[in-house]
Amino acid sequence: MPTDSTTTPADPESAPPGEAPCGRHLGLALVVIAAAQLMVVLDGTITNIALPSIQTDLDVSASNLSWIVNAYALAFGGLLLLGGRAGDLFGRRRMFRIGITVFTLASVLGGLAPNEELLIGARILQGIGASISAPTALSLIATNFPEGKPRNKAMGVYAAMAGLGSTVGLLLGGVLTDYLDWRWVFFVNIPIGVAVLTGTKLLAEGERNTGRLDVPGAITGTGGLIALVYGITRGGQDGWTDTLTLAFFGVAVVLLVLFLVLQMRTTHPMLPLRLFRDRNRAGSYATMLFLGAGMFATFYFLTLYMQQILGYSPVKTGFAYLPFSFGMGMAAGISSKLVARLAPRQIAGPGLVVGAAGMFWFSRLEPGSSYATHLMPAMFVTALGLGMSFVPMTLGAVSGVRDQDSGIASALLNTAQQIGGALGLAVLTTISTSAANDRLPEAAGTFYRAIAMKDFATVAKAGDALTHGYTTAFTVAASLFVGGLLITLFAINAKKQEHGESAPTAHLG
User: Fold this and answer.
1) Distance between first and last Cα of the chain
2) 500 phi and psi, to 5 degrees?
């Protein structure tokens, strides 16, 4: 297979190419990478619970409020491929530092923002920083940790941070908003960012590839992804037949088709299409789309259910997610050990079955459901399923990738999760709204008007309609996990030695 680049020595201050830090520094190196991943993923949800306070303080209109969340998702998901390629070309540790620096400075700007325009701008900058640091963090694991137990353990911790970050964000968002101020959901990133930047000296740079950035590919690829995510987001809010929604979908199709044409013809493609020739890698990416959709749906609809229907405060809502954190961490730890003994689909397959069961359990929620006997066990079961699936899919996406492609391979994994989450959430939101409105026209608006008027009979009726919408969405989400299960069973056929300790030919970095 022809190569599209050559390698040059790593940064002078780093360890020799391919040489990991000495044993006593491996633990600290893992802490640095895990902390960075936690901070990046956490910021995708930490602002959710703080949105009402932000809206009141900055006088944000209802139509613009969603952009405080969407701006981050659009920049993050749309620029991940470019960030991963930049790490391969200019040095992963160097780009990792740049990404963390941009993210930390953007957090300062977000916390100090006097109006919605500057806050949304800060969220875009945070997304740019995340799009650089997230893919380089995963590829730095390949550079710094040798094959076998050390890398499997590091991958397990990374996958746990990817899964737990969203839950921790909801928990911190509630605590910081209730007890301090919404601005602290941004300020909390500052000490973490400074600590990560200080610790980057422990990381080996590894080999750096020569070549150039695929600028036309970056413009068409990231532009197409941004148009697609924006179209999905707008479609969920304004309807799939909305003129602007359809226009953005059209732009997305044109740009993404042009992107693929360019990738087939350019000498230095941003996304080497050869990555998809391996059925296990392609299957891992496809399964991650469904995992992202399921995880985003869980947080979104459960948060609405707990605050609207059960009347939980922000901090109580955050703490209510603790069983999800425990389940995710436990499952990620177990699956990181099983990858050396079992084939990926033997781990991810049962995980997706368990995740689907958890989603179906959520679909049985009622307005008066108990937390202890319904919500808590369903959260734990769903988290077990997600945690069992993340580790083998993460390993499957990057195992066997050539050194010059490891950054882009990991970036594509993150992109799959973000795009899958955006697509799944937009579709499920539309389904949920339609189901609720079928039972009671304009259910959400009626619910809030009835609360303001203290019309408790109507509040109960609207709450029943909203609950019906949420449970309908969970039913569809369960089918998404089944879809991921089918892909795993029929597309992923890797043996355990290709991902486990005895994989002499697997080379990630």
Assistant:
1) 18
2) -95, -155
SS3 59: coil
Structural contact between residues 360 and 475, judged by C-beta atoms closer than 8 angstroms: yes
Under 8 Å between Cβ of 159 and 336: yes
Token pair for residue 59? Answer: 């006088």
Kindly state the tokens that stand for 288: 């991650």
Query: What is the rounded distance in angstroms from the CA atom of residue 412 to the CA atom of residue 407?
Result: 9
**Residue among 286, 242, 299 at smallest CA distance from 428:** 299
The answer to pTM > 0.90 is no
Instruction: For residue 235, give Cα distances in angstroms to 255, 337, 425.
Output: 19, 41, 11
- Res. 501 pLDDT band, cuts 50 70 90: very low
Q: At what angle do helices 149-179 and 376-398 cross, to 10 degrees?
A: 140
Measured at the CA of 21, the angle between CA 19 and CA 27, to 5 degrees, comes to 140
Q: Is residue 460 helix, strand or coil?
A: helix
Instruction: Note the maximum CA span of the chain.
Output: 72
- Give per-residue pLDDT as tens, 443-498: 877 887 888 888 888 888 988 998 999 999 999 999 999 988 888 888 776 665 44
User: In this model, does residue 232 exceed pLDDT 50?
Assistant: yes
Both tokens of residue 405? Answer: 């492609």
